[in-house]
Design a protein that fits this description.
two-stranded antiparallel ribbon; mainly alpha; about 55 residues; Arc Repressor Mutant, subunit A; about 10% strand; binds FE2/S2 (inorganic) cluster
């Protein structure tokens, strides 16, 4: 499932990037993947995806 349509980032990409970056903020995860938020519509969902991933280890 896509989290960010503007950058074609999938849920798994964002989750793995957040883990690698050791950050919980979507912008840091996107930066890890070489992208930046564009429209910003995805940020609340991306944050939720990252928080759920961290909660589950
Ligand atoms: S959907 Fe992610 S920046 Fe637009």
């Amino acid at each position: 499932m896509f989290v960010c349509v503007c950058n074609a980032l999938k849920e798994r990409d964002v989750r793995d990037a957040a883990r690698l970056a050791g950050k919980s903020c979507p912008k840091a995860a996107y930066a890890q993947l070489g992208h930046k938020p564009k429209c910003g519509q995805c940020l609340p969902f991306a944050k939720e995806v990252i928080e759920n991933a961290r909660a589950c280890g």
